[in-house]
Amino acid sequence: MRKIFFTFFALLTTSILLAQMPRVKVEEGILEGIVLPSGVQSFRGIPFAKPPVGVLRWKEPQPAEHWSGIRKADHFGYSPMQKPIYGDMRFRSPGISEDCLYLNVWRPTSIGSGKLPVLVYFYGGGFNAGDGSESRYDGESFAKEGLIVVTVNYRLGIFGFFAHPSLTEESPTNASGNYGLLDQHAALVWVRKNITAFGGNPDEITIGGESAGSMSVSAQMASPLSKGLFKRAIGQSGSIFNLKYGTASIAEQEQQGVAFATRINVDRLDKLREIPAAELLDKASEPGAFTTRLIVDGYFLPKSPLAIFEAGEQSKVPLLAGWTSTEVPYTAYMGKYYPSPENYEKLVRAQYGVNADEALALYPGKTETQVIRSATALASDNFIVYSTWKWLDLQRESSGQPTYVYIFDKPRPPMKPIYSDVQSGLAGGITKKSNQEQKDNNPPPLSGAFHASDIEYLLGNLQSNDVFAWSDADYSVSTIGQQYFINFIKTGDPNGKGLAIWPKTTAKDKRMHILNLNIDMKSSTEESRDRYLFLDKFFVDHKHTSR
After folding, report:
1. Which of 40, 159, 479, 539 is the most buried (most CB within 10 A)?
2. What is the DSSP secondary-structure string of 347-389?
């Protein structure tokens, strides 16, 4: 009798728990999510497009299939095809696959009358790695504050950015290559259609992202296809106006596509589509085989992003964007050379030639301390700071909307002892001061807030990263940084009660107002504008349209 009672009790408990699982009805069918210990509800692995496999490889995303019954949304979908490029990426997906077009939703315990603001977030990874299941992108913290958060998968590398004359010819839009960006666009269309079912307001969508995700935000702002799909934008370190990794023309990328097909001895499109995904990834990952670029394709980007922004044809929305104080360390510029004034000057003169004197005036290196500071700045500016600044400058000049600029300056704390061996090797591989000097000198230590270190802070996910020994100061900066972001997502203005004033920058301002995000939150007028105007000379933009 006792056994029967416990069996009955277990079945009853299970039935109650199942009845409590949240359900929503979207256009394609009914979804059943999960409830996190905090009470936040999560819906994972929601298909927003058909799997881009077989004949759909290298095609614009197609609407997702409908399903009958209840679809369990309790696990993440597959990650896009990619190599393990970055050691800090921790996916919770079941693996990699071409079948990767899934998104994830977090919503508050109570949605009240609905109409909640929405954040759609794109991950980083250089358009060659990443996925929306990483815990550093989780929307739980923001959902606790009354937001709905969506993370989106999109195709990467050769699967997301392969252009070829045959693909362009078969396309009804006479374009090829920007499939990853089109995936993001398709996700935004899906969110706008379906977010009401989750309690969200389709007219209050903010798009955001970091690194390649931030570049994606700027690309969605430039594209006429995505106009009207979002109301605000957030960019963390990166834009489409990159000095090295900006846009390429469709003609250039088609040529690369032909060269790749020739390299692997496949001359027909149907045969290219038949290559197993893992094999295709291996071939594309060989040195010199394929370079991922965003493309001025005449469709998603009808002309160059610079021409679009200069003409004021981009999405005219408030923009909050910035960068970290040390996007990359001085070693990224110095390489294996010790940061002496002599070595530094040689490198600058080799890079800038007739413009070297101007570069050295803006990035001086008279002492070792100066060299470390200037080499850090020059490497970071070339890598990603300039492009983020350029995006903000163009938006404030041509949109009539406010921009809010930040520098994230809180260094991560030391790694926990178990990871200390990893940290001790970060500064390795540097030679002594010069071939002439025989003194034994250890390389100066690396310091600062590095690229991508702001993600866990500003999205409220410090606890998801167990590598670092987070302190009360870290959690304090995270809480305040989150509040700025949340306020902006809700109202278009990051300012709020109890927060340091974050001045907006508009076309009327001669220089940007920048908020320093650290333990001591304070704003100042930009001091480095002349550096960015100098680098502006070297920005190569494809002013032409598709050809």
Report:
1. 159
2. HHHHHHGGGHHHHHHHS--SSHHHHHHHHHHHHHIIIIIHHHH
Contacts of 168 (CB under 8 A, 6+ apart): 174, 175, 176, 250, 254
Contacts of 184 (CB under 8 A, 6+ apart): 122, 152, 154, 216, 220
Torsions phi, psi for 13 (to 5 deg): -60, -45
Task: Tokens for 365, please give them.
Answer: 């290196």
Shortest CA distance to 383 belongs to which of 245, 527, 288, 532?
Answer: 245
Tokens of 27: 């256009």
What pLDDT was estimated at residue 419? 72
The beta strand positions in 80-158, using DSSP E, are: 102-107, 116-122, 148-152
State the SS3 of 210-222.
ECHHHHHHHHHHH
Confirm if 249 and 295 have CB atoms less than 8 A apart. Answer: yes
Residue range 151-171, pLDDT digits in tens = 999 999 999 999 999 999 999
Q: Where are the alpha helices (DSSP H) in 43-198?
A: 140-144, 157-161, 165-170, 179-194
* Cβ atoms of residues 152 and 238 within 8 Å: no
- Helix, strand, coil percentages for the chain (3-state, nearest 5): 40, 15, 45
Residue in 149, 140, 141, 146 with CA at minimum distance from that of residue 119: 149
For 54, residues 6+ apart whose C-beta sits below 8 A from its C-beta are: 273
Contacts of 491 (CB under 8 A, 6+ apart): none
Global pTM exceeds 0.70: yes
Cβ-contact 486, 142 below 8 angstroms:
yes
442 secondary structure, DSSP code:
P
Residue from 422, 412, 416 nearest 452 by CA = 412
Report which of 70, 51, 71, 69 is spatially closest to residue 61, judged by C-alpha positions: 51
Which has the closest alpha carbon to 253: 161, 171, 154?
161
Q: What is the CA radius of gyration of the chain?
A: 24
| Residue 104: closest CA among 67, 70, 133, 79 | 133
Rounded Cα gap, residues 243 and 368, in angstroms: 27
Q: What is the pLDDT of residues 73-92, one digit of tens each?
A: 999 999 999 999 999 999 99
Backbone angles phi, psi at 404, to 5 degrees: -125, 120
- Residues 461, 138: contact at Cβ < 8 Å? yes
- pLDDT for the residue numbered 245: 86
Q: Which are the contacts of 3, defined by CB distance < 8 A and separation ≥ 6? A: none
CB burial of residue 277 (10 Å; 0-12, 13-18, 19+): middle
Show Cβ contacts of residue 16 under 8 Å, excluding neighbours closer than 6 positions. Answer: none
Q: What is the DSSP letter of 322?
A: E
Residue 408 forms beta bridges with which residues?
Answer: 324, 517
Q: Considering only CA atoms, which of 182, 541, 538, 141 is closest in space to residue 362?
A: 538
